[in-house]
Write the structure tokens for this entry.
Amino acid sequence: MIDNLYMPYLMRIERITYEAPGVKTFMLKFVNDADQEKFSYKAGQFGEYSVYGVGESTFCIASPPTRKGYIECTFRQTGKVTNALSGCEEGSIIGFRGPYGNVFPIDEWKGKSLLFIAGGIALPPMRCVIWNALDLRENFKDITIIYGARTVKDLVYKEELKDWELRKDVRLVTTVDPGGESPDWKGEVGFVPTIVEKIAPSSKDTIAIVCGPPVMIKYTFPVLAKLGFTDEMIYTTLENRMKCGFGKCGRCNVGKVYVCKDGPVFTAAQLKELPDEY
Amino acid sequence: MVDLIKRAKELIESSSVKVVIGYEQGTGNKTRALFVENSEDADKLIFDSRCIQNLAAYITKKEIKEKGKMAVAATLPVMRSIIQLASEFQVTDANILVLGITPESKLIEFGNLAEVEKFVHQYEIEIDVRNKEMLDKLEKMTQPERWQFWIDELAPCFKCYACRAACPMCYCSRCTVDFNQPQWIPVPSTELGNLEWHIMRAIHLTGRCIDCDACYNACPLSIPINLLTKRMLLDAKEHFGGYQPALKGEHLMSTYKPDDKENFIQ
Amino acid sequence: MAEFEPKIVAFVCNWCTYAGADLTGTSRIKYASNVRIIRFPCTGRIDYMLLLKAFDEGADGIIVSGCHPNDCHYTSGNFHARRRWIMFRSLCNFTGIDTNRIKFSWVSAAEGAKWADIVNATVKSIRELGPYTEYKKVAKYPEKEVNHG
Amino acid sequence: MNIDKRLVRKDSLEKLFDILKQNSKKIYAPSEKNGKITFRDAENFKGISTGYIQTTQSSKDITFPRAEKILDYSKSKEGMSVKGIDLKEIPEIILWGVRPCDANGIGELSSIFNWDYKDEIYNNRLSKVTVFGFSCNKSDEYCFCTSVGGNPGNTLGSDILFTRMGDDGDYLAEILTEKGNVIVSIAPQLFEKSENSEKEKYLAEVPVRFNHEEIKNKLDKFFESKEWIEQSLRCLGCGACAYVCPTCACFDIQDEAHGKKGSRVRCWDSCGFSHFTIHTSGHNPRDAQSQRWRQRIMHKFSYMPERLSVYGCTGCGRCSRACPVDMNILENLISIQEVTI
């Protein structure tokens, strides 16, 4: 047997968590222990998840590398493959190949404060880093998480949000778009950039990690700039359509930068260098 | 064509239209589409027997439509396509001016689409002799022979979709083959998938195809896919008395007659 | 070798033929069991691609059946369908697809016996034609390593 | 290195073909259908086309097939079984009649498929291929190999390069690789000692039309140019150019299911298609045809040289010949070179 780049690991779905309408989290375990042993990844990387007979789809690994023995992914049911994934039950076998892409330079952030800003379904790629940082809590100063979704129902990882809320070493701010609040909603109401401006976290010795829909990113960057964040202090991820995950299929490039190899993690400074094609 | 150049210049200079679509000398011995947006470019306009690309394919193209009102140097097949597109609400008098080129290579300008319709209705859609012979030849084959003929002919097809791109009637922003829920036709080029794709194309063009051969001319592998639509044209004639693109009235396949023949139904 | 049992897919409309087939059953009329029935709201909904896919998935014969003319639950669905079948049948014929393997019929809700007859006759004629190997041969793409065209 | 040069008599070529066939070699050679010449499994020597300037499709179909299985799966009560493609079963193939530009393209494809991640499926297919290059003794207005660093007698990529000496002359065979030597060892009597080993005068003359280094440097600042919009107005957005190109490597991965069994298939795709980059959300980073056309040129003349140190174009001119609307890559490159930013 040759080394086949396209050959996925067989993964068993151990647990399915319903997160929000159309959004599920799968906890996946390697069917073969040997695969599990040689597999390693870092925060920020992604993989190709596949339903045999339907196809492959790209999303990040949502669990932190500090938790061994399984990986998790969270996806929203939108296309052909995510629909098929959504139809899978606990115990089903799916494919996974990866990890691909670059990583969040967590080691370089040692001794700094972290500010996480996420919108909607973009919390999963960040959750990996958040847990990674929380598991190594002593390495960082303040950790602030600002998370917004369209409505209360659309907030993902509701259990974990409660968890973070109770932790004394994390400052969690949740918000929903105006009109999306429920009667008993205790969090903020307003769009993410507005809330960031209101909370006004200090930029001193702080790294900001921003993930969300393009509009959110577009309006959050200026707010961060006003708060004194330089472009090198802001990290984000790009999500482009991909097929291979390793720089061959020709889809994901933005100019000469391949999101699958050079990304998905970019600093705002790097993004500004890219042509407007993402 | 001196008349065409002169008229194109007038139209552009008077801002009556934003763009004139015609032909220019291409590379090698080819001709190609030209989009005249300023009067100097109009000098490049030509017309001769090599100008066979169906320019109506550009009428529904986003990048061209955005420019504003257009004038099209239209040969008979192009005029037919325009009428068909108008009948499908893809183009109206407000956004097109037809500079007709008659089969005798004379320029006639039409005031509106109704006049174009009247003009094209003078000519029947005729299938040329060479293709007619080919159709007859296929007709005489046995069913397994025909099957083999098409499997062999379509096997080289690598699904570049040049046939679809060149066809003025294939203007859907998302074609059936681009959908994946359900995936009607396999994305990779496969023997059966290729046949399915070309059957689908022929069916979707039934009653709409005006037999311009753009699909065949565009095919980089010269697969005679136009035979499929030609057969449909003949069948439409046989079963329903044929059709001409028309601004008003029912489309062949979106209507019915209570007495459509049904000798094959038990 | 066991006798060839044809696989037949029937695309039928909900209002007439499906009810008719129901009647065949409740009337205890015996008929061939080779047919798998797929119910549609109307014959107008039976897309030609479904027929091709049935062959693709291994059907040896197809029955398409709905309400008699003028009986359509939606007034004209079967008229539209008929016009499409006329064109589709001739295109099938032209591309060498065996049109003897596609049977079209009108079966009303009261014609339980006719449904049995249609199925039996189709099974008989498909049995004579044998398995649709021509189609199956090209349908089995995954068996092939590569396609060079 | 001294290249082993031999003489192959003009009537020896058929003998060579027959001997190789007797040695149960699979030979893919250009043959004609509907007036178009393409590499096909050749049964006999007579069916091989000669005198062509260029085949309609490139020979990449052999090492990078339009559709190839990458794995099989089957589901059963016991669970799922997945099996990768067994490349040991791939036959040895002789690619006969490859033009030097195509042979050159093999190297360019290889650099894509071996960019950090080594694509062993591609590499394995390539390792089974012996390339019989045939130098060009004529060219047409679409050829521009010399502008991208090639030439009509380029040995790069071929295992044996045949050059016909004169219109009806014998062939000069340059044995370039170990695979070439293997062929010679199968029929040594046909590869005679060569007296005349000068091929240059028999080669086609292909003038240099642009400077590819200059184009590359210019493209760095050319992303926002209006030129892309002007050039691509005519473009209909089909995939003909990409599918005939010897170096276009964009692909799609699709699952083909039949009941409980099926395969995952890698198949060609084209950056010219409007849905190539579309996200599930409906957002499309390359929404306009001009952006897709820009991607095609930039990928070949800017991104690839920058990232892979090779150009993505061999100057074969196929895309221009195949284009239904006469998008001529040479013409467009020249106009990029001429236009001032």
